[in-house]
Amino acid sequence: MAIATAILELVVCFHQAVVGDDQGITDTITRLRDLTDGGGYAYYTDIAAFMADRPVPSSSARWIDDEATVRGRWRQLVITRCALFRG
Fold it and tell me: Whole-angstrom Cα distance, residue 59 to residue 41?
């Protein structure tokens, strides 16, 4: 059940990044960190930070590509959606 909630929180973070809800992003990342702390899905907090263009405090995630590339891909999803949302 916790993983389903974590997935929903990640979706919420995407939405908040698109609409520019900074406080919402902060709150969602905190909840996401609590949900995934020490688990196999802790990288979800990294993804949330990437989408919101925020720093990742400390991470044990190992990406196939370098972190900058992964960050750029997640951020680009938000940028593209912003253009559609506002356009």
Answer: 11
